[in-house]
Amino acid sequence: MIMVYLVRQGQTDWNLFKTFNGCTDTELNQTGIEQAKLQAENLRSVGFDACFCSPQKRARQTCDIIYKGPIVLDDRLAEIDCGEFEGTKETADALKLFWQAIQSGDMGTESFEEFTKRNCDFCDMIMKDHKGKNVLIVTHSANARIINYYFNGKPQDYDFWKSVVKNGGVLTFENS
Predict the structure, then answer these.
(1) DSSP string of 66-122?
(2) Distance between the two ends of the chain, CA-based, in angstroms?
(3) Contact between 77 and 53 (Cβ < 8 Å)
(4) DSSP output for 19-68
(5) Under the phi-then-psi rule, with left for phi > 0, alpha for psi from -120 to 50, and beta for the rest, what region is 108?
(6) Closest CA to 37 of 17, 4, 64, 56
(7) Alpha carbons 100 and 22: distance in angstroms, whole number
(8) pLDDT tens-digit readout, 13-45
């Protein structure tokens, strides 16, 4: 079966310690490296026709472990800009304030509308230029939510707050 394989980047210390990590270029920790190695083994038998990756270091490290062919770095796959929240703890109150801020791009954040648009534009490109091919995408948590939303038909009741894949995990979507 022809599929889109979406891998969330492996764990970083900022993931481990529940810290907002949008644009800061953090690296995988040892757990994240092991998660990527596990996905490399799980996806070993898949013949990928194309590979796209966020330009951020943690995603590139994950991708480099999983895939040994040509990789297209695509800025649309970069994590949402967390603005003033970057590097702070993801407490319940902070998450609520963050959600309010991204509704309009306040506090230096990227607006949720713009973030959704760039990820959906990326998915439109996949469907236009890579339909019927096995495609590997390596990106981040918020991007995975939008891409999951896209490939599930953009349901009106979609919960964007709900995590859809753990660090180092994979989602698959039919691409035929």
Answers:
(1) H--S--EE-GGGSPPP-GGGTTSB--HHHHHHHHHHHTTTGGGPPPHHHHHHHHHHH
(2) 8
(3) yes
(4) B--SSS---B-HHHHHHHHHHHHHTTT---SEEEE-SSHHHHHHHHHH--
(5) left
(6) 64
(7) 16
(8) 999 999 999 999 999 999 999 999 999 999 999
CA angle (100, 7, 110) in 5-degree steps: 25
Amino acid at 1: M
Least Cα distance to 148 among 165, 125, 130 occurs for: 165
20 in Cβ contact with 90 (< 8 Å):
yes
What does the DSSP 8-state code read for residue 154?
Answer: -
- State CA 40 to chain mean position distance: 17
pLDDT tens figures, 105-130: 999 999 999 999 999 999 999 999 99
- Asked whether the beta carbons of 71 and 136 are under 8 A apart, the reply is no
Q: Alpha-carbon distance 3 to 175, whole Å?
A: 5
